């Protein structure tokens, strides 16, 4: 498409700052009726309101840590860290609200230029209780399902995934769960294994409660005690050592079904600690960046991906965010691109 114009921002005189498709020439206009979002950090610094519909990919922050077994976890600060860092790589909406300027992946291609990101901000918690988490997530999930929208969540600890998938099930969605993680998350404390859902046992609960059709775990590693290991016909895994495009294709091809949706969950501790050490439970021998990006590239050709989450990263002081967080922004961007590509497949665009 040619002659696309992008809205960069609105100045203090109420004028819209506009650029052409090259983003090399700029001018102001008083004719564009746009409204800046106030008091909200928006992912990728998109400042304008956009339509909430099936063409949008929604982003919601979930600053929640009550499901973590780590005594001093800071994972509830992770959404704010990523939001702040994302403003360093702005994406601009076009005047027709059908495209954005996208961003350039120097190792691959221009991504996210044919979709609209709709940032709904962070969920506000009062009690940080499981009941409050479930209630507030349900409101978002119900809306996304009723509008047939795609969505993403930034956690928070990994227990949030249980409640997301539970509500998808209650909305009639059959889910194949793709689980990037260093850990199996099938239970670490036999004394409370079947009582409370937490970030270390939620996968077992997903299967036992019949919330998902199948779980494919990617990147797991290390030794496990008997209570941490779980076998089930609806659970399969690929270790970090064997993680590659071919092994993942072999695992998901039998699960491709027009009556099922895929949901991806990315626990950042799936990465080797040498790449991203800011997690509560690091485990050596993790997946490389090359492995992760190759697998995500493969998921671009998978239809019916309904959403994803990125979880379990520690929060960082925004005065000095370590450079390793750039990797997570890149992964989040690639996951958004996976959603968009999946939408295009469904709509016959590819």
Q: In this structure, how is the largest beta sheet organized?
A: 8 strands, parallel
**Total strand segments:** 13
Helix proportion of residues, in percent? 10-25%
- Helix/strand-derived category reads alpha/beta
H-E order = EEEEHEEEHEHEHEEHEHEH
What do the pLDDT scores average to?
87
Shape type = globular
Q: Largest beta sheet: what is the strand line-up?
A: 7-4-8-13-12-9-10-11
Through-space gap between termini: 16 Å
Strand content: 15-25%
Q: What gyration radius follows from the Cα positions, in whole Å? A: 20 Å
Stretches with pLDDT under 50, minimum 5 residues: 34-42, 45-52
Q: What's the number of helices? A: 7
What's the short story on this structure?
This protein is an alpha/beta fold. The chain is built from 7 helices and 13 strands.
Give the key terms:
single chain, alpha/beta, three-stranded antiparallel beta sheet, 7 helices, 13 strands, 24% helix, globular
Structure write-up:
It is a single chain. It is built from seven helices and 13 strands. With 350 residues, it is an alpha/beta fold. The model is unreliable at 34-42 and 45-52 (pLDDT under 50). The protein has an eight-stranded parallel beta sheet with strand order 7-4-8-13-12-9-10-11, with helices on both faces. Strands 1-2-3 form a three-stranded antiparallel beta sheet, with no helix packed on it. It is globular and about 65 Å long.
């Amino acid at each position: 498409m040619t002659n696309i114009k992008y809205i960069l921002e609105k100045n203090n005189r109420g004028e819209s700052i506009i650029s052409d498709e090259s983003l090399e020439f700029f001018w102001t206009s008083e004719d564009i009726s746009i409204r800046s979002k106030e008091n909200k950090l928006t992912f990728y610094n998109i400042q304008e309101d956009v339509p909430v519909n099936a063409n949008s990919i929604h982003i919601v922050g979930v600053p929640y840590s009550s499901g973590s077994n780590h005594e001093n976890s800071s994972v509830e600060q992770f959404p704010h860290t990523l939001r702040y860092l994302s403003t360093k790589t702005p994406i601009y909406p076009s005047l027709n609200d059908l495209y954005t300027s996208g961003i350039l992946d120097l190792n691959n291609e221009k991504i996210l230029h044919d979709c609209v990101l709709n940032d709904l901000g962070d969920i506000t918690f009062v009690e940080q209780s499981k009941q409050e988490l479930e209630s507030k997530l349900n409101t978002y999930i119900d809306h996304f399902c009723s509008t047939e929208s795609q969505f993403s969540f930034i956690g928070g600890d990994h227990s949030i995934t249980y409640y997301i998938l539970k509500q998808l099930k209650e909305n009639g969605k059959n889910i194949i769960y793709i689980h990037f993680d260093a850990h199996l998350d099938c239970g670490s404390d036999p004394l409370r294994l079947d009582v409370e859902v937490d970030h270390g046992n939620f996968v077992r609960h997903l299967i036992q409660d019949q919330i998902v059709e199948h779980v494919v775990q990617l990147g797991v590693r290390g030794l496990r005690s008997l209570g941490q290991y779980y076998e089930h016909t609806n659970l399969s895994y690929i270790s970090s050592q064997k993680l590659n495009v071919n092994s993942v294709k072999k695992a998901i091809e039998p699960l491709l079904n027009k009556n099922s949706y895929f949901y991806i969950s990315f626990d950042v501790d799936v990465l080797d600690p040498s790449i991203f050490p800011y997690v509560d439970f690091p485990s050596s021998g993790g997946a490389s960046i090359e492995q992760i990006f190759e697998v995500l590239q493969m998921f671009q050709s998978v239809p019916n991906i309904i959403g994803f989450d990125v979880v379990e990263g520690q929060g960082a002081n925004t005065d000095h965010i370590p450079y390793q967080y750039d990797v997570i922004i890149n992964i989040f961007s690639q996951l958004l691109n996976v959603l968009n590509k999946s939408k295009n497949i469904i709509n016959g665009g590819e």
